[in-house]
């Protein structure tokens, strides 16, 4: 630990990362009456903004940078929260007996702090073997990516999306709505295979094919073809060539844990945290997409939850931890994905289910997941009422009558069951 110098900035809590999680923590600190300085250091040049619309409204041109801003500059000024944009923390010096220390930023400036919160997020997983700087190849994670992709969609008649997850399907639907010919290439046997059971995968597949999107399953990518420094096609594992003026790579994200690892925090794919966001070092918390936490159904498994809801709730809980307060009661995680006119909502963690029930009525779909007879999660398509019912049920520890759940003539509300022993 180096001695403080007169040129060091001093702060109470240093938040590394300017997304939803970091903003939630900083705001919660002020709500609890924390009066020392709070500093957010973010690598992007923007104040905290909403990320989910980047693949939808922003690409369509119905939303812009200003509309996505979570809080205006006045909000931070009124609460005495300093936000340093366009800066990265290159090194963390931690005190041996607590969370205080000194951070070195990429411009050489120093920030000393008494408490540390890491909200470094994740980065888009790159497609192996793609030459750096190849024109027409895009990923989508932040505002800069979205601006580049939005501009590239103009005049790109043939779009190939590599990856059949949420980001890939959202971008595919948006590109199709803008008139492009779109092909989705997925290496697995169904869409969203890592996230849901076959019924929702089949529902998504039918929707996107009906929208005119070609979907190739069980299909690998061997490489990209290029001419004059720009992509011209995608070579598949079976030798076929898909013409492409634009390629979007959506094959997942990698938690950004380099800073945490260099500081000696316990990491396994992500920064390991407990329910309150506490890390392996006292006085250091972490939250958001850079973290992993205890799986709710598998004792020997850690789980990363990538969602705005999880980031915000972790940020609130981590603020309590830094202040020595009891964390709020945990709430059921939930997610959403808008893919054109298909609205998917998910609540709970379905991974680890041993039974599921499908309720389908027209274009509405509800999949209920059970483990040892207990309701653990649901996924719905174009059925927000069912989503809210299951969300409330899970938050209250209620169940659903499994024996009658397949009967769609019985409303889901009638099937809600309170835990045994409760009146």
Description:
This protein has 423 residues and is α/β, with parallel strands linked by helices. The protein folds into 3 domains: 9-121 and 254-322, FAD/NAD(P)-binding domain (3-Layer(bba) Sandwich); 126-251, FAD/NAD(P)-binding domain, CATH 3.50.50; 353-417, FAD/NAD-linked reductase, C-terminal dimerisation domain (Enolase-like, domain 1, 2-Layer Sandwich). The chain is 23% helix and 30% strand. It has 11 helices and 30 strands. The protein has a 5-stranded parallel sheet with strand order 4-3-2-8-21. The chain has a 5-stranded parallel sheet with strand order 10-17-11-12-13. Strand 12 (181-185), helix 7 (198-210) and strand 13 (214-216) form a beta-alpha-beta unit. It is globular.
How many helices? The count is 11
CATH class of the largest domain reads Alpha Beta
The structural class is alpha/beta
Distance between the termini: 58 Å
Please estimate the helix content: 10-25%
Strand percentage lies at 25-35%
**Overall body shape:** globular
């Amino acid at each position: 630990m180096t001695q403080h110098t007169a040129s060091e900035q001093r702060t109470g809590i240093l938040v590394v990362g300017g997304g939803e999680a970091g903003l939630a923590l900083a705001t919660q600190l002020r709500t609890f009456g924390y009066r020392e300085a709070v500093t957010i250091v973010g690598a992007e040049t923007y104040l905290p903004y909403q990320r989910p619309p980047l693949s939808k409204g922003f690409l369509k041109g119905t939303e812009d940078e200003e509309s996505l801003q979570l809080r205006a500059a006045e909000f931070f000024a009124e609460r005495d929260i300093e936000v340093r944009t366009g800066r990265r923390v290159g090194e963390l010096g931690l005190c041996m007996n607590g969370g205080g220390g000194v951070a070195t930023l990429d411009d050489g400036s120093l920030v000393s702090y008494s408490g540390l919160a890491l909200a470094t997020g994740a980065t888009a997983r790159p497609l192996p073997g793609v030459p750096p700087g190849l024109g027409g190849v895009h990923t989508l994670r932040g505002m800069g990516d979205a601006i580049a992709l939005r501009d590239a969609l103009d005049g790109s008649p043939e779009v190939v999306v590599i990856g059949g997850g949420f980001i890939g399907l959202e971008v595919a639907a948006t590109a199709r709505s803008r008139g492009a010919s779109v092909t989705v290439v997925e290496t697995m046997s169904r869409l969203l295979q890592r996230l849901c059971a076959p019924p929702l995968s089949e529902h998504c597949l039918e929707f996107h094919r009906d929208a005119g999107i070609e979907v190739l399953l069980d299909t690998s990518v061997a490489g990209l073809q290029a001419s004059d420094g720009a992509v011209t096609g995608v070579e598949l594992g079976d030798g076929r060539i898909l013409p492409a003026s634009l390629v979007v790579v959506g094959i997942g994200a990698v938690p950004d844990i380099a800073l945490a690892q260099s500081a000696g925090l316990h990491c396994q794919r992500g920064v390991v945290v407990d329910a309150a966001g506490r890390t392996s070092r006292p006085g250091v918390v972490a939250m958001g997409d850079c973290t992993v936490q205890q799986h709710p159904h598998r004792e020997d498994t850690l789980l990363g939850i990538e969602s705005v809801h999880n980031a915000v709730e972790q940020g609130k809980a981590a603020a309590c931890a830094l202040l020595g307060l009891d964390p709020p009661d945990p709430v059921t995680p939930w997610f959403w994905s808008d893919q054109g006119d298909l609205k998917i909502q998910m609540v709970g963690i379905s991974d680890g289910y041993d039974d599921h029930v499908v309720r389908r009525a027209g274009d509405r779909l509800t999949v209920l997941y059970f483990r040892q007879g207990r309701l653990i999660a649901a996924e719905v398509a174009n059925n927000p009422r069912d989503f809210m019912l299951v969300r409330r049920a899970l938050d209250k520890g209620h169940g659903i009558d499994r024996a009658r759940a397949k009967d769609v003539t019985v409303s889901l509300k009638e099937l809600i069951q309170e835990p045994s022993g409760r009146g």
